[in-house]
Design goal:
- Chain A: InterPro entries: UCP030820.
- Chain A: Pfam families: DUF934.
- The complex is a heterodimer.
- By secondary structure, chain A is an alpha/beta fold.
- Chain A contains seven helices and eight strands.
- Chain B is an alpha+beta fold.
- Chain B folds into four domains: 90 residues, no CATH class; 157 residues, Sulfite Reductase Hemoprotein, domain 1; 98 residues, Sulfite Reductase Hemoprotein, domain 2 (Alpha-Beta Complex); 135 residues, Sulfite Reductase Hemoprotein, domain 1.
- Chain B has 18 helices and 21 strands.
- Chains A and B meet through helix 4, helix 5, helix 6 and helix 7 of A and helix 1, helix 2, helix 5, helix 6 and helix 9 of B.
């Protein structure tokens, strides 16, 4: 599905590179990766996230990693293919598109992916907590976002009701354990 | 009712701090209008026509007296001394100042309340039966299950940016009083022949611009799997629901597009991975939830009290009217549930003043174990009143203007805030309700008509549930003019149906006259003891149409 047609046109010549990267809950010193949305040609920079098909066609290039669009359907086959990726980027074409959260959870919980999963695109400070809980280990902030706000937002909550990628025991279970 | 422990309290406190931070960034220009929008919505804050609007969550309609008092205090200090109960059992403030909202949320947190996920494209407040736990026809008290759903859905990390809003309703009785067939997901708790609790899961119901009755996804889900199954349903919706057109983004469009079989197949495929996972419920977890909803310490009521009550009812016509319309039988002999009418001509349907909130809290303390329930028909309920105290309660309610003996009649109108308040509305709705209440105020006439749901929405978003009113009125905009479309035959209970439009819409001033003609047809055509809805179903739309559009 060509959901990011317009984006492809805009960034064709210049792969996106962001300054502020949150990695494992901290502001990363630098961000080596660029993100290329061009479905046809490989970017010059390395390492680079490139569209899934391009990555699949260039598996001998160790410095490439797949970029998943938000409408990617994670079949069992694709899930196992992605196990070989050194890192996986999941695109947020708009911050209101919540499909990327499900994609990250499936990669972690269903397909056991243990490498870096990076949120790219329209990534905002106030999504980071949910992203981390869904399995993102890195988030490349949209350029106008303030990294100090990001770190504060990441630590907004000390309680959660549900299980998620980080938490394997629901609060209702914890309460039972605590009361015994 | 449910009481917070340290975890619940910490979560709402941290939520307030988070929103305060977001509000500060918004006001400092570090957070843009667009970026702030879903954040404020998921804290109940709308930017409306005249002022912001704050929608406060009342989980499955349960309120403690102390909470109602706090709400009264909040409406006085931060608003204009009144609030509006909605069709989803929540409370709306119409005039808060934007910059006060973090403080209001902090005040709410002090009494174990919040406004989390009362708006936005996320899982909303779970609604239920206002007679939960006390109904004669109940199979299972839905409230502990609602609470488990509330916790599961609150700040769910995966489902905060769904294609569109997502509403869940739960019924645990023989009769559906929670309108489960017109929710994104409707749940019905029932027991199989072996006495085991099962859950019937419906999906894809809803009102709005494409009203639909939900389809059955699963008849007999064992209760242990409630949360994992819900997670599978919402995950399928999150992945495959349409995001290109907000008018086609609700789950009902997905269910319709895929067909219920394919939707079910995808849910089951997803569920196969989640089933028996860490969110599987166990007996101990359910018992822990049930502990919050104990039977109140009801004193025994002598049989003679019931006799005295029956005697008064036969002697006092006004009391009898009140009992017939506003009092509901209770599972415990000697007890009744009392519905407080919030439908009076001088106020918009569902509106309550701060003074009334405090008075109701006081009545709840004295007559009904300190608890109040909000109904989706925008009334309040005191659920546990001994029959020997009914007369006293009735007199006090009458003095407060809340004993209007019209619950369930044409006068008990469901109505959204409409064009007087809402930025989305095409037309006003409150003045229509008031005009109708004025026209049809004769009690004998109302009683003669019998049970009649008249629902009004000011636009096709259908907050006033017009599609499921026996008579539904929808405000429409035609070239800047307000018109009203009238439909008949809708119903939200067990035999749910959607109303059919009579024909071309009407001027505002003509609405009462048109409704009157519709009623005349019913009165002329009905068989003895036949409800409006049944007459309509028997004779169809045509006689109504002919009468309403007849040339003068």
């Amino acid at each position: 599905m060509p959901s990011n047609d317009t984006q492809t046109e805009v960034v064709e010549q210049t792969p996106v590179h962001v300054d502020h990267l949150i990695e494992n809950g901290k502001l990363a010193a630098e961000n080596a990766w660029c993100v290329s949305y061009d479905a046809e040609a490989l970017p010059e920079q390395r390492p680079a996230f490139v569209p899934l098909a391009l990555w699949q066609a260039n598996q001998d290039d160790n410095e490439l990693a797949p970029l998943l669009t938000s409408d990617t359907e994670l079949t069992t086959e694709l899930g196992s293919t992605l196990k070989g990726a050194s890192a996986i980027a999941v695109d947020f074409p708009a911050f209101t598109d919540g499909r990327g959260y499900t994609i990250a959870r499936l990669l972690r919980e269903r397909y056991g992916y243990t490498g870096e999963i990076r949120a790219v695109g329209d990534v905002l400070v106030d999504q980071l907590d949910y992203m981390r809980r869904c399995g993102f280990s890195a988030m490349a902030l949209r350029d106008d976002q303030h990294p100090e706000d990001a770190l504060r937002a990441l630590n907004a909550f000390s309680v959660r009701y549900q299980t998620d990628v980080e938490e394997r025991q629901a609060l209702f279970e914890k309460r039972l354990t605590a009361s015994h | 009712m449910y009481r917070y422990d340290i975890h619940d309290q910490t979560l709402v406190d941290e939520r307030v701090a988070q929103f305060r931070d977001q509000m500060e960034r918004y006001q400092a220009g570090r957070l843009g209008e667009e970026e702030f929008r879903p954040l404020r919505l998921q804290n109940g804050l709308y930017i409306q026509k005249h002022a912001p609007m704050l929608r406060i969550a009342i989980p499955y309609g349960m309120l403690a007296g102390a909470q109602l008092r706090a709400l009264a205090d909040i409406t006085r200090r931060y608003d204009r001394g009144y609030g509006h109960f909605t069709t989803r059992q929540n409370l709306q403030l119409n005039w808060p100042a934007l910059e006060d909202v973090p403080d209001i949320l902090a005040e709410l947190a002090k009494v174990q309340m919040h406004a989390i996920q009362t708006s936005g494209n996320c899982i909303r407040n779970t609604t239920s039966d206002q007679f939960a736990g006390i109904a004669n026809d109940e199979v299972e008290d839905p409230r502990p299950w609602c609470e488990l759903i509330r916790q599961w859905s609150t700040l769910h990390p995966e489902f905060a940016y769904l294609p569109r809003k997502f509403k869940i309703a739960v019924s645990g009785a023989a009769q559906d009083r929670a309108a489960i067939q017109v929710h994104d997901i409707g749940l019905r708790l029932w027991r199989n022949d072996d006495g085991e609790l099962r859950i019937k899961v419906l999906a894809g119901g809803g009102l709005g611009r494409t009203p639909m009755i939900g389809d059955v996804v699963r008849e007999d889900l064992p209760w242990q799997h409630l949360l994992t199954y819900l997670e599978a349903c919402v995950r399928v919706y999150n992945q495959f629901g349409r995001r290109d057109n907000k008018f086609k983004a609700r789950i009902k469009i997905l269910v319709k597009a895929l067909g219920i079989e394919e939707f079910r197949r995808r849910v089951d495929e997803e569920w196969a991975y989640l089933k028996d996972g860490p969110q599987t419920l166990n007996q101990a977890a359910v018992e822990a939830a049930k502990v919050h909803f104990p039977e109140p310490d009801r004193r025994p009521v002598a049989a003679s009290a019931t006799e005295a009550f029956d005697k008064l009812r036969s002697e006092n016509r006004s009391f009898a009217r009140f009992v017939t319309n506003n009092v509901t039988d209770h599972k415990v002999p000697g007890y009744k549930a009392v519905t407080l009418s919030l439908k009076r001509r001088e106020h918009a349907p569902g509106d309550v003043t701060a003074d009334q909130m405090e008075a109701v809290a006081d009545l709840a303390d004295r007559y009904s174990f300190g608890e109040v329930r909000v109904t989706h028909e925008q009334n309040l309920v005191l659920s546990d009143v001994p029959v020997d105290e009914l007369e006293a309660l009735w007199k006090e309610l009458d003095a407060l203007g809340m004993a209007n003996p019209t619950v369930g009649t044409l006068n008990d109108i469901i109505c959204c805030p409409g064009g007087d308040y809402c930025a989305l509305a095409n037309a006003v709705s409150i003045p229509i309700a008031q005009a109708l209440q004025e026209r049809f105020e004769d009690l004998d006439f109302l009683y003669d008509l019998g049970p009649l749901d008249l629902n009004i929405s000011g636009c096709m978003n259908a907050c006033g549930h017009h599609h499921v009113g026996h008579i539904g009125i929808l405000g429409v905009d035609k070239k800047g003019e307000e018109y009203y479309q009238i439909s008949i035959g809708g119903n939200s209970t067990d035999d749910a149906s959607l109303g059919k439009i009579l024909g071309p819409s009407f001027f505002r001033e003509d609405v009462p006259g048109v409704v009157e003609k519709v009623l005349e047809v019913y009165v002329a055509e009905r068989h003895e003891d036949e409800r409006f809805l049944d007459t309509y179903r028997r004779i169809g739309l045509k006689p109504f149409k002919e009468r309403v559009y007849a040339q003068q």
